[in-house]
Amino acid sequence: MSSLEVAVEIPSAAQHDENDQNPLPFPEGPAEDMPSRVEYVEYLKSPIVTLVVGHGEDQALLTAHEALLTQSPWFAETCAQFSHDLAERRIDLIDKDLDAVGCFLEFLYTGDYFPHKIPGTRDLEHDAATPEVDETGDQLLKHARVYTLAETLGLPGLKSLASSKIHCVNSTAKGEIAYARYVYAHTQKDDTAIRAPVVNFWATRSHTLRAEAEDEFRQMCLEFPQFGYDVLTRVLDEKLKREKNDKLHPSSTHSTPATSRKRLRGI
């Protein structure tokens, strides 16, 4: 096994834009409903919990303070099973992605995870280890895995943060297919927050992107019929809207859908 050290860093206000939620790991809610503020050091006085993440050669031991972990309802329920005199507190997460868990821990300690969003833009900080354009979908999948982990752990603030970063990634058609496959394999049908932008993207751009990844697009539709149905439904809905608009405004013209691969999409 290898170990991964998580750095503790208190973020500055400049690291968070106005859309960020819960920038520090303290309970959310109206001020009148909240208990008196807990000093940050009190979290650091809580017991250390060992997390066994992944399996095989990629398995790693991570550690975190229990009082921070229990900001997650899932961890709160799990840690409640520890006896007070237990010397070693250990939780197995062998089916979880190591990088996603690392991002989750970074979020607990700092209120964000790398790469950070650049305030006032739709861009992420430059990461020298990743290309400018996501050819494989790896950058999209990084944030998608954080999103699904946050769903499991019951952390809406982290879900929202991960989703916002997904929309900042530039990708290719093949990268988009890899991302769409993950979304349809690991999210619920009614999770429109992440599925609807995927559907909208392919419904408005499939006429140009399909040529770049036609085999992958066909395989995706066969593997996930719901994806094909959702895209077709969106295409037909848009067609009906255009026909209705043509009847109301016969002389109007329609703009060509944007071709930018920037992930900020309308729903």
Automatic annotation (TrEMBL):
Record field: compositional bias (Low complexity): 250-259
Region (Disordered): 11-32, 243-267
SUPFAM superfamilies, sorted: POZ domain
Name the UniProt record assigns to this protein: BTB domain-containing protein
CDD domains per record: BTB_POZ_ZBTB_KLHL-like
InterPro entries noted in UniProt: BTB/POZ_dom, SKP1/BTB/POZ_sf
Ranges for domain BTB: 49-117
Domain of life: Eukaryota
